[in-house]
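Progress against Task 2.4 (sequence-to-structure conversion) is shown through the following example record, which the project officer requested during the mid-term review.
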Amino acid sequence: MPVPITSVIEELRRTLTAVSYEQQEQLAAEIQKANRVFVAGAGRSVMMARCFAMRLMHMGITAYMVGEVVTPSIAAGDLLVIASGSGETASLVSMAKKAKSLGASVATVTIYPQATIGTLSDAVVAIHAPTSKSDTGVQSVQPMGSLFEQSLLICLDYVILILMEKRQITGEEMFARHANLE
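Structure tokens generated for the chain above:
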């Protein structure tokens, strides 16, 4: 018999309630002051990051996924949000350095705030969840980075809720920007 779903739910509860509200609010503040928001990640984390970029767009925030053919160049006044469990993925470190050199701000959601991307960031949200590459001392009943990736999605959705309150935007207003060429 597999692990009970209640064990997974308990891991998510424990992990997400330990995420700092102040850090999430700081990320929301960085988004608020940015001209445009660029979102990046790698592996499964990039899939969660895509969901976040989509919700930013639904809010009326100009948001782009790094790597898409329609993504313009980043510039001073923009924000690069990086989803990286390790905070050391070479391509993402390179992006963070490039963004900073061009005058853009950087934010990250990571397991390791002290990693390279975290040290380059203007805002850091720490999610204390294990992955197969980490030695956080935290154990998970789930394989590989599943707990981090699930927590990343929910954490970023919570940042959207913070932004909705700050900007006084309703779900109905956001839905008006939902894709309609389906």
